[in-house]
Automatic annotation (TrEMBL):
Pfam families from the UniProt entry: ATP-cone, Zn_ribbon_NrdR
PROSITE patterns to which the protein is assigned, alphabetical: ATP_CONE
Transmembrane intervals: none
Name of the molecule in the record: Transcriptional repressor NrdR
Its job: Negatively regulates transcription of bacterial ribonucleotide reductase nrd genes and operons by binding to NrdR-boxes.
Gene: nrdR
Organism the protein comes from: Zongyangia hominis
Length: 153
């Protein structure tokens, strides 16, 4: 690791500890030339996966975009941000563990609805109304009826 002060290419690790819930390692280093200390962070290299949208275009998966959609669905509902962040992390883990490098928005939407249904039914219906693009009140009522039937079981 090159020293940011003098540019010397050699340093020694003085201290090493996990940070950000174990996703990074913080290292304190000391330059072997000027003896000044500096901090570096080590992260695991991951390959980004692509999202295939309905119009067949592709973009890199964005956790923030998914969280924003969940926040809109849960607006004014008793759902904590921590719960929503956990849902996003859970969905991301599921997608990464599938080993597919490309995933459709349909698959992501189904994963979101599956989790929202367990957390908050109103948020689930809000999300479903946008995701499934209900054309009219009748299709909206059909979804509500399906939700009621599942609740009775």
């Amino acid at each position: 690791m090159r020293c940011p002060y003098c540019g010397y290419p050699e340093s020694k690790v003085v201290d090493s500890r996990p940070s950000e819930e174990g996703t990074k390692i913080r290292r304190r280093r000391e330059c072997l030339s000027c003896m000044k200390r500096f901090t570096t962070y080590e992260t695991m290299e991951t390959l980004p996966f692509m999202v295939i949208k309905k119009d067949k275009s592709r973009e890199v998966f964005d956790k923030a975009k998914l969280l924003n959609g969940l926040l809109r669905a849960c607006e004014k509902r008793p759902v904590s941000i921590e719960t929503l962040e956990q849902v996003v992390n859970d969905i991301e883990s599921t997608l990464l563990n599938s080993l597919e490098r490309e995933v459709s928005t349909v698959k992501i939407g189904e994963l979101v609805m599956e989790r929202l249904k367990k957390i908050d039914e109103v948020a689930y219906v809000r999300f479903a109304s946008v995701y499934r693009q209900f054309a009219d009140v009748e299709s909206f009522m059909e979804e509500l009826q399906r939700l009621r039937e599942q609740k009775v079981r």
